[in-house]
Amino acid sequence: MVTFLEILVYGAVQSSVYAMLAVGFSLIFGVAGVVNLAHTAFYMVGAYLIYTLFSLSGLNLIFSLVVSVVLTGIVGILVQHLCIRPLIKSEYSVMIITVALAMFFQEVLLSTFGPVDRNLTNFYDATYKLFGMVTIDAQRLLTLIVAIIIIICLWLFIKRTKFGRAIQAVAQDREGSVFMGINPNRVYLQVMFISACLAAIAGAFIAPTLGARPHMWEHPLVRVFICVVLGGLGSFEGTILAAIIIGFTEVVVAFSLSAYLGELVAVAIILFVLCVRPTGLMGRRAA
Amino acid sequence: MRSKTIGLFVTVLLACFFLTAFTAHAVIKVGVTGPLQKEAGIGDKNGAQLAADEINAAGGILGQKVELYFVDDGARAEVGVNAAKKLIYDDKVDVITGGWLSGVGLSQSQHIFDGKKLWLSVGPATPKLVNFVKQDYERAKYFFRVGCVNSDMFALDMIIFARDLYKNKMGLNKLAIMPESSVWAREMGAYLEKNLGKEGFDIVYMDVFDPRQTDFSPQFANVRKSGAQILFTVQAAAPGVPLTKQWADTKLPVHQAGYSLAAQVFNFWDKTGGKCMYEVTQCINGGRAPITGRTIPFFDKYVQTFGISPTYTAFGCYDALYLLKAAAEECKCLPTDAAGTEKMIKTIEKIKFPGTGGLIVFDQYHENVYGEDGKQPVWVQWLGEKKMEVIYPFKWKTSDYVSPAWIK
What ipTM was reported for this prediction? Predict the structure, then answer.
C-alpha cells in the first residue's frame, strides 16, 4: 500500500514536470509547425532569472516569478519574430537556428554566471507526509500543484476563449483563418509567448531542487521530444497523456528495478507505440 | 673576399644551428587535459598553474621553464582523444598530466602510448589503466597514476572508514549504496558490495543512478523502507546538488557519506544553500590535514589564490609537476627526448616523493601505493560554510563526527 501511494505521488510529480515542459513545445508545433529546439533554453533562462531576482537580489517571490516569466515570454516573442519567422518556410532551418539560439543562451549564461551550479532557495522549506506515509518536500509538492493548475487553465483557455479558438483555427487551417479575420503571425507570436512562459514557470519551480547551470537545457529537451512524439505531434491532450505515461513508467521502474533503467524502458515503450501507431497516441494522421 | 663571404655564411649557419639547439628545449612542455568547465578540470588547471608558477619562480626544472598547455577534454571520450592528440602532435608536449574521468583516460591511453609521452595521470581511478602496464610493459610504461589510488583502494578505504566510525563507534551496520553509472563508480560499487559483508555490514539496498538524474524520490523511498542507517554514494560526474538537497529536504534518516567530488569544494555550500550540512565525503588525494609537511601549506595557498578549496585533481596536478622536478633532479635528465623519457621512467619507478596528498610511491605496475606508506585519503564532514572538518583518520581529525539533526 505504501509503495502504491509513493508511486502515485512521485509519479504525479514527475509527470507534472514533464507535462509543464512539453505542453509549450507541443503548442508552438501544433499551431505554427515550428520545432523549437530552444524551448528548454527558455526553461533555463527562467531558472536563472528567478535565481537573479529571488535568490540573489532578495526580491519578493511573487514579483520575481511574474517578472521572470514575463521577461522569458518576451524573449520568446523576439526569438519568434527575429529568428524563426524569416525562416519559417524551412523546418530544417528553424531547427538549426533554434539549436544555435539555445547554445547562444548557454554561452551568455556561462559568461555571466560561470560554470558553477547556482543555488535557488526553496520557495517554502518544509517536509510533508502525504496520506501519513509518503514523504515529500514542499517545493516539489508546490510544483505538482502549480503544474496541475496551469495545465487546466491552459486547456480551458484554448478550448473556451475567443483567443483559444483563434489558436485552434490557425492550427487547423492557416489560410482559412485569414479569411476569418485572424492574423496568423500575431497568433504565432502570442503562442510563442505562452510557450516560453510555460517553460519559464517549469524552470522557476524545478530549479530550486536541481540548481541552475548553463547546460541544464540539454537533457530535458530529450524528455520533451519523447513526450511530444509519443503523444502525437501537435496534440495537447496527447502530450499530457504521454507525460503521464513517461513519468509513471520511470517511477515504477525505479521502484521495482533500478532508476538507471527508467529512461531505457520509457524509450522502449515509445518505440513500441510508434510501431503500432506511428502518429503517436493522439496524433492526427496525414490526409 | 670570396673565402671571407663563405666563412661568414658558415659562421652564421653554425650560430643558427647552435642557437636553435639551445632554444629547442629551453622549456619543458607539460600538457594538462581535463574538463576545464567542471570542478575537476578547474582543479587540474589551478593545481598545475600554481606548481608551474612556483617552480618557474625558483628557476624551473634543471634551468628549464615549465610551459603549460591546457586542453579541454569536455569529460567526453571523443573530445578527450582529440585533446590528447592535439597535445602530442600539435603542441608536441613532453609530458601529459591531468585528466578526470576514467572513461576518458581509457580512450586517451592508446594514443598517449603511441606518442610515447610520459603520462603522470591524475584523475582516472580505474584499475584498467594499470592492467595495460601489466600486460605490455614496453608499450604502457609511460603511465604513472600520480593523482589518486585506484578505485578498489578507494573502496577499501571506505570500508575501513565505515568500520572504524559507523560500526565500531556508533554501532551501525545497515548500509545502502548508490554509485553513479560512470565506469570507476560502478567498479567501486561492485567492490563495496563484495567486501562490506566481511566487516559485518549488511547491504540492505543498492542502486546505480544516472549522473543526470534529478529526482531521487523512488530511491530514497526504497532506502527508507530498507531500514538503512548509512547511505554511501559514489559520485563524480553527477553534480551532487539534487541528491544532497533532496536528502536534506526530505530529512532522509540516514547518515550520508561516500565520495562526492562536488562536495570537496567550498562552493558546494553555496550550491546547496547549506543543505550539505552533515554530509561526509572522502577526499581521495588530500584535504586540510597534516598528511605530509606540504599538505596544509598547499591547501591554504590554493584557497588564498583561487578562493575555493582544492579538489583531488588540484592536489594531483600540483604533485605531478613537483614529482617531475624531483625526478629530473635525481636523474639529471629531462623527458624532452626518448632517452630522457626512458631515464625519467626508471627514476620515477623507484622514487619516494612526499606529495601534498601523501607519499607518492609506485608499485611494479606504476600504481600509486595506498596506505600509511603511500597515499591515505582523508574524510571530511561539512559543519558550516567553508567548514569542512577532517573527521578521519582519527589521528588527523579536527572535529568529531556530528550526526544530522533530524536523526535520533
Answer: 0.85
Count of alpha carbons within 13 Å of B347, Cβ hemisphere only?
Answer: 21
CATH number at residue B326: 3.40.50.2300
Q: How is B84-151 classified by DSSP, letter by letter?
A: HHIIIIIS--SEEEE---HHHHHHHHHHHHHHT-EEEE-S---THHHHHHHH-HHHHTTEEE-SS--H
State the count of interchain CB pairs (< 8 A) between A and B. 95
Range of the domain at B202: 152-283+377-396
Which residues on chain B are in Cβ contact (under 8 Å) with A107? none
pLDDT per residue over B148-158, tens digit each? 888 888 899 99
Same domain, B15 and B128: yes
- Judge whether B246 is closer than 8 Å to chain A, CB to CB: yes
Mean pLDDT within A233-262: 90
Identify the contact set of chain A against chain B, taking CB-CB distances under 8 A. 2-3, 6-7, 10, 13-14, 110, 115-119, 121-122, 125, 127, 134-140, 206, 209-211, 213, 219, 251, 254-255, 258-260, 263
Looking at the fold, whether B384 and B235 belong to one and the same domain comes out as yes
Structural domains counted in chain B: 2
* CA distance, residue A118 to nearest chain B CA (Å): 5
- Global pTM? 0.83
Q: What is the pLDDT of residue A120?
A: 87
Whose cell is 547511505? That residue is B231
Query: Which of these, A225, A286, A271, A230, lies nearest to A35 by C-alpha position?
Result: A225
Question: Do B208 and A139 make contact, defined as CB atoms within 8 angstroms?
Answer: no
Average pLDDT, chain A: 89
Which of B215, B244, B385 to probe by mutation at the A interface, max A CB count within 10 Å?
Answer: B215
- Flag whether B37 is in a domain: yes
Closest A-chain CA to B274: A119
Considering the domain architecture, whether residues B208 and B269 belong to the same structural domain is answered as: yes
B50 with B320: CB under 8 angstroms? no
Amino acid B7: pLDDT = 66
The tens digit of pLDDT for each residue in B78-116 reads: 999 999 999 999 999 999 999 999 999 999 999 999 999
DSSP A213: -
**What is the per-residue pLDDT across A110-156, written as a single tens digit (0 to 9) for each?**
999 988 888 888 888 888 888 888 888 899 999 999 999 999 999 99
Residues B144 and B166 in one domain: no
